[in-house]
Design brief:
- By secondary structure, this protein is α/β, with parallel strands linked by helices.
- It has a single domain, classed as 3-Layer(aba) Sandwich (Alkaline Phosphatase, subunit A), CATH 3.40.720.10.
- Helices cover 35% and strands 11% of the residues.
- The protein has 17 helices and 15 strands.
- A 9-stranded mixed beta sheet has the order 7-6-5-8-3-9-12-4-13, sandwiched between helices. It has a two-stranded antiparallel sheet with strand order 1-2.
- The protein is globular.
- The two termini are 39 Å apart.
- It binds zinc ion.
- The site of zinc ion has 6 residues, from helix 9.
């Protein structure tokens, strides 16, 4: 059933601006939209698993919809790409150009120069539920609900993916929502659920003797398994609240990226120029596939709680491949994506074209189709929500993605429905984020060490609780290493 927006929103901030007399902004009728983001999901891994019946929810989605490659930014860095996905802008416009800003502090939502889709949706009276999305802390005051992750600068040493912090303010909107979230975080740890999920990725206890590097790869992965499990539980909690009926749901899960960085050489040993011991290959060869199965379970659970008539977008920010180097890296990482391999997009729903790209993925016939660009997602999503696109976005007409994946009838409705910009009257971007208490920064390393309770621990306490890495010189954060070189620092880990 279409949602019709009865209450038009009075855009008070526009009233004083050049000739915008009597402005009310309201969305046209639309179906709810659900976006499920999986960091670093790659068709080379997903398509064979779909055909083998190991990703039934993604398979079912594609069977009733369309799918293809989603081209991305280069270098492909998570905060940059996910902000592009949520704004329809490139990094030069939205201003989030790396993990850390020039002061060596993680970028925050206050530093984003352009509106994100949740701001625009709010302008048009639409409610957004946004959970775990990159660079959303501090949670913005939106019409809806936001649960914003935080990633500390010190996390560079093990895993950039953000999580919920007990002592950090402004992780939710509305603010009081945080009190509902804390018990979920505690329960994920207490319930044994995490242990079961971890045991699905790895052999616990390990069947072979592992060195310190390998134990760290597992421990760093647990961090993301935990974060994903928390955010899934939060999404389900919000979906179960009868008063939460979002027009737009945005969710992000990071583990597919984290596992791919750490276990690629065991999955695809022949792609590496150095040899990988056979017993280690046997131990870890299925870890990436397991994380994709886990992602599929997450997708199934998110969609089970979403309205049946929702349009659904599943996407990743980039793809993945083996890192072509002559010798193993000291940190053991072996999957790579800085050179921007295309990610995935799959869509289904009442406004989505059926059949585009199905044969290659579902039957292995022919090449996987090119669907569009990460910048196409927001303008296409706005069109699906009955909101005008903006002509200052990279592809204001939704680009190739909209043309290939959205039904003609819906495209006709959206045709010509655009404004010059959605950013008029938007607050000025902060030059740096709010300062974060030192205890919060230290909490990341402590929390990682605590994950040792799962029984996957490093021999060396030092390894588990490595101090924050040295602050990078300001210039370096803006110049990621060239593709296919051996990158240093956090960029390569996420
Ligand atoms: Zn990554």
């Amino acid at each position: 059933m279409f949602r019709s927006i009865v209450a038009a929103v009075l855009a008070s901030s526009w009233l004083g601006i050049a000739g915008c007399s009597g402005d009310t902004k309201s969305a046209k009728e639309h179906h709810p939209l659900v976006v499920v983001g999986f960091d670093g999901m790659e068709w080379k891994v997903a398509a064979p698993l779909i055909r083998a019946g190991r990703m039934p929810h993604l398979k079912a989605l594609i069977e009733r919809g369309s799918a293809g490659y989603l081209y991305t930014e280069k270098p492909a860095l998570s905060p940059v790409c996910w902000t592009s996905i949520a704004t329809g802008m490139r990094k030069g416009e939205h201003g989030i150009d790396n993990f850390l800003d020039a002061s060596g502090t993680p970028y925050t939502s206050a530093q984003r120069r352009t509106k994100a889709i949740w701001n625009i949706a709010s302008d048009y009276g639409l409610k957004t539920l946004c959970v775990g999305w990159w660079v959303t802390w501090p949670a913005e005051e939106i019409d809806g609900w936001m649960i914003a992750p935080y990633s500390t600068a010190g996390q560079n040493a093990f895993n950039w993916k953000g999580s919920v912090r007990k002592d950090l303010p402004d992780q939710t909107w509305p603010r009081e929502l945080f009190d509902e979230i804390v018990p979920i975080v505690e329960d994920v740890r207490a319930s044994g659920r995490l242990k079961a999920v971890a045991a699905d990725y790895f052999h616990v206890p390990p069947r072979v003797e592992l060195d310190a590097v390998e134990k760290n790869l597992m421990l760093q992965t647990l961090w993301s398994i935990e974060a994903d499990e928390i955010y899934l539980r939060v999404v389900k909690h919000m979906q179960a609240r009868p008063d939460v009926k979002p027009d737009l749901t945005l969710t992000y899960f990071g583990c597919t990226d984290v596992v791919s960085h750490r276990f690629w050489r065991y999955m695809e040993p022949a792609s590496f120029r150095y040899s990988i011991p056979a017993d280690k290959v046997a131990e870890f060869q299925d870890a990436i596939a397991k994380s994709y199965e886990q992602a599929d379970r997450i997708l199934g659970e998110v969609l089970a709680g979403a309205p049946q008539d929702a349009n659904v977008i599943v996407c990743s920010d980039h793809g993945f491949h083996a890192e072509f180097i002559d010798a193993p890296r000291d940190d053991g990482l072996s999957g790579h994506h800085l050179d921007g391999p295309p990610g995935i997009v799959a869509m289904a729903g009442p406004d989505v074209t059926a059949g585009f790209g199905q044969a290659a993925i579902l039957e292995g016939k022919g090449d996987i189709e090119d669907a569009g660009f990460i910048y196409d997602v927001t303008p296409m999503a706005l069109a699906l929500l009955g909101v005008p696109t903006a002509r200052d976005m990279q592809s204001h007409d939704g680009g190739p993605l909209m043309k290939r994946m959205v039904k003609k009838e819906r495209r006709e409705v959206a045709k010509g429905d655009s404004v010059r910009s959605h950013d008029d009257g938007f607050r000025k971007a902060a030059s740096h984020g709010p300062s974060v208490d030192k205890s919060v920064v230290e909490d990341a390393n402590r929390a990682l060490a605590e994950l040792g309770y799962l029984g996957i621990t490093s021999d060396d306490e030092e390894e588990r609780t490595r101090p924050p890495a040295k602050k990078k010189p300001a210039g370096e954060t803006k110049q990621p290493p060239a593709p296919t070189s051996t990158p240093t620092g956090g960029e390569s880990k996420n």
